[in-house]
Structure formats: C-alpha cells, structure tokens
Amino acid sequence: MAIKNKKFSRRSPVAAALVLLAGLIVSGGSYVAASAAVSNAAPKSEVDQAQIDTGKKIFLSNCASCHGKNAEGTDNAPSLIGVGSASVDFQVGTGRMPMQASGPQAEKKPVQFKQEAIDALAAYVSSLAPGPESPTAAYLARTGDASRGGELFRINCAMCHNAAGAGGALTEGKYAPSLRGTSDKNIYQAMVTGPQNMPVFSNTNLSPEAKTDIITYLKYVQENPSVGGDELGNLGPVAEGLVVWLGMLGLIVVITIWLGAKSN
User: Fold this and answer.
1) Shared domain check, 52 and 124
2) In a shared domain, residues 160 and 123
3) Which residues pair with 175 in a beta bridge?
4) Do 213 and 144 have their domain in common?
5) CB atoms < 10 A from the CB of 197, how many?
6) What pLDDT, in 10s, does the model give residues 167-219?
7) Which CA distances in Å does 259 have to 189, 246, 247, 254?
C-alpha cells in the first residue's frame, strides 16, 4: 500500500504543479539576479531636477525643431526617447549634433556647446526613459588587458574600423571613422549606443570588463608607433603593396633613363 501511495503522489497533478512552480521560481530568481548583476556592473551617474530643467530649455531651443518638442521624433530626425545620456553626450560632445546639413551620416565637427550644457541636455533626454548612461570617471580610470582587448576588437570591430582602428569605407557614402584621437569616454559611449551603422554592444554582449580591455587596446595602439616603419595610415596590405609597386616602377623608370643617357 505504501508503494502504491508513493507512485500515486509522484503522478499527482498537485505534485506536478508544485514542481512547475518551483522551476518558475528558480528560473525567475536566476534571471533577476543576473539582471541585477549586469545592472550593477554598468557605470551609472546621478542628475538633479534643476539640471533636467536646464536641459529641457536647451533642447527646446536647439533640438525640438528636428526631434519634436517631446523628443518623439519627426520625419527629419529619430525619437530620442530611451537613447540615454551616453548617446546625447557622444553625438553632441563630438560635434556630430546638431547637424549642419542632411547627409549619409553625421560627421564629427567642432563642438557647439559647453560641457555643462551638454550634461544638462543629456540629463533631460535621460529623464524621458531609461537608456545607456555615460561612464563614470572611476570606470574610465580602470586599466584592462590590451592583448585580450585586441582579440575582442578584431572579432567585433575590425571589419569596419580596421584592425588598428584606422577606419574604413562603408556602403552608400557612409564610413567607419578612425578611432585615432578618440577619447576613452567616446569609445565606451559608441559601444553602448551604436551610432550611425555601428551595432549596439550591451553588457550582455560585451561585459564592462571586456569594454575596458578594448579601450586599453586602442589606447596602446594610439600611444605606440608602428615597429615596422611608416604605418601608411594602417590601411593594410593593399595600400602598402601599392606604395611598394609604385616605388619599384619609379625606380625602374629612373634606371632606364640613366642607362639610355649613358649609352648616348
């Protein structure tokens, strides 16, 4: 009788429901814990209401004509709801916004606003909806593994930006800009916001530590010249081969002229 009751309890609908409920609790708890870990790993910043109000005034005066009074977007510009402070600081802090004229993509140019105004504008847009945030000074002070960063960069970024971050052409008049001279902050912001044609690398794709490694690699490339001589813009073997071919052809022409002159 005890064996029959044991078998019956295992097949009972109540037992199945309890097992399912336990599975949901475990999986749900694991997801919440993982999300909290990723959220805590991401750099965060705090803003106050006065800064947000100042940013709203700047937005209405300089951005609303294209992005809409409530940043909802128009036919001429996308919505800014949910883009976060990192996107605003990157686009405005590099002079890409406001754009001078429509084109394949926003180009880097002299910055139009002071950093205080950019921070206020970023605070206002960030207050509209959660989005990627700019890195803190403590995060940017970290030093990563340049070797691992180089590997990650070649896997995820080199197909557009070149293995040394020299940039490259894309389709329809667009291009991946050179990363020479780009600040650590802007590199991080580009990874988490995906400006232009660049994909977004969230913390689930590339952890904050992996992003630090990539930034460390790019800093190493910027600070250390090519050990093989003139790097020719790091454009790769095609450019290097062309220079060698033109040099050898020129040398052959010079030798030919010299031999002709000597024979005469």
Assistant:
1) yes
2) no
3) 169
4) yes
5) 14
6) 888 888 899 999 988 999 999 999 999 998 899 999 899 999 999 999 999 99
7) 60, 20, 18, 9
